[in-house]
Design goal:
The chain has 254 residues and is mainly alpha-helical. The protein is built from twelve helices and two strands; from the N terminus they run αααααββααααααα. A two-stranded antiparallel ribbon has the order 1-2.
């Protein structure tokens, strides 16, 4: 396919998958449960954090996280007691456990109390081209309070070579606003043009089949390569193509 054929093909797939029917089988349904900005952010951040593995299990465990917080995530973060945190101890999703969950609550409280919230932290270090430096700086702030060493692995750092798939997915949820009802678009301080595609096994494999990604590893360098190609197709909203790559891989077995 030439460039225009590729764009037409991918735009068709975006239109096919970027609609409310997508929500029922995706973890993005979790932040959609809420209306208050802080609840949406926290629900989205926690759900994106555990978004690896079986999708049904991700959704089930994300709902469980909300239940453990009384389905009031912001209130839980800001007013939790040690007893409340002890109730999180049995939680497990793959390698993310109750100890990690408890620290995430403490760190989120620090971010809302001392850094003006998640949007403020992420928007402060954005550049004209990318959110990758901002993601790296976010990790420093997230772990600026005492923390278990084991929990560090649950926040990616692009400057250490990671594609940071789950954080880039979270940012897509928060920033993209196209009125199609899937992405929430509640953050106005970050332009969609500098977002990066959540790069994982599915999107990476499809991108290689379509010859818009040459690098074999799904790492930071591959993400930069994919970003460049997707921004050529749509400079203003490149990560809309996540719907196409994901849909082709997961739903169509392309």
């Amino acid at each position: 396919m030439n460039q225009s054929e590729l764009k037409e093909f991918l735009d068709e797939k975006v239109a096919l998958y970027n609609n409310p029917n997508f929500i029922e089988s995706d973890p993005i349904q979790i932040p959609h449960l809420f209306t208050q900005k802080e609840d949406v952010e926290i629900a989205g951040f926690l759900s994106a954090t555990i978004a690896w593995g079986n999708r049904k299990m991700i959704i089930k465990n994300s709902h469980r996280m909300m239940d453990l917080m009384g389905n009031a995530p912001y209130d839980f973060v800001m007013s939790h007691s040690e007893t409340n945190l002890e109730q999180l101890e049995p939680f497990v999703h793959r390698t993310f456990n109750g100890q990690d969950f408890s620290f995430f609550i403490k760190s989120l409280k620090n971010i809302y109390q001392n850094h003006n919230g998640l949007e403020s932290v992420y928007s402060k270090n954005q550049t004209l081209e990318s959110m990758q430096n901002s993601i790296s700086e976010f990790k420093k702030i997230f772990f600026e309070i005492p923390h278990p060493t084991r929990t560090q692995k649950h926040i990616s750092d692009p400057l250490n070579g990671s594609a940071a798939k789950r954080i880039n997915m979270f940012l897509r949820w928060m920033v993209r606003q196209d009125n199609n009802g899937v992405d929430l678009g509640i953050w106005k301080s970050i332009p969609p043009s500098i977002l990066s595609c959540p790069l994982d096994v599915h999107s990476g494999n499809i991108a290689r089949k379509l010859e818009i990604l040459g690098r074999k590893q799904n790492d930071f360098k591959a993400l930069a390569e994919l970003d460049q190609k997707l921004r050529e197709l749509d400079p203003n909203d490149p990560v809309k193509y996540d719907f196409a790559l994901f849909g082709l891989g997961v739903f169509e077995g392309f």
